[in-house]
Amino acid sequence: MAITAGDIAKLRASTGAGMMDCKKALEEAGGDMDKAVDILRKKGVMKAAKRADKVAAEGLTHVEAKGDTAVIVEVNSETDFVAKNDNFKKLMAEVTNHLFTVQPKNLDEAMKQPMTGGTGTVEEYFTNVTATIGEKISLRRFEVVKKAAEEAFGAYVHMGGKISVLVVLNGTTDESLAGDVAMHVAAANPKYIRRDQVDTSVLKKEEEIYSEQLKAQGKPEKMIVNILKGKMEKFYSEVCVLEQPYIKDEEKTVQKYLDSRGAGITVTKMYRYELGEGLEKKSCDFAAEVAEQLK
Fold this sequence. Notes:
Blueprint: H1 5-15, H2 19-28, H3 33-43, E1 58-66, E2 69-77, H4 80-83, H5 86-102, H6 107-112, H7 122-133, E3 138-146, E4 151-158, E5 163-170, H8 175-188, H9 200-216, H10 221-239, E6 245-246, E7 249-253, H11 254-261, E8 266-274, H12 284-294
Antiparallel strand pairs: 1-2, 2-3, 4-5, 5-8, 6-7
Helix pairs in contact: 1-2, 1-12, 2-3, 3-9, 9-10
């Protein structure tokens, strides 16, 4: 499979690794982007990616709780200018109200429903808004979340809607405490609540990568086994919210902090929406720059 300058640019943008390292990794992976990322990690040359190179969508995220129901939602626009407009904020309020009122199970169901307070479907509503504003406006994702009477919602919005978080705490009705945990989730970006939620394929990949790194450092097999255990414990402390150092008291994990506030308190649900995450900017100029350097 031929490796293009665009492929190299994409890998370089997502990993921060050097141009030639990206080219070699893609060649070794036969053009498979995910395998190339793993190869770069194993070689220890992958750097932190610049988020600006990965985020294409503009718009807003929003979270709101009413009684025993909460909604977290992301609506995208093409430009930040439009997202800052009062009409866009009004749109967010109307969409959030619809989700509270009708409580659709998924995006497909939502788009087919009659828009609350409107004359057509939700899909037609967004089509009309797009035509009026002059750029594409889309409902990307949402969750309608329920809680029990003995639980608490924690809702937190960061940077005016760049990040929104919703958590549910069991064993307490303290919304202030739940809000603090939501703030932690916004800052620390955990992927899971508990370690038993981490997929075995993810664990296997991490163990393989750490093993390759240790072998490359010349560590003996017996030592690798013990070091690997420590590496995996550190991995859990980075990706599982209950095992992360709590941002307001780093001497305690989040779970230990919750324990200090009352017996049996823990996180049962967690949603973190970061605007545009997983979407990529078009990077034609960057690809051209790479192509020029490869000549």
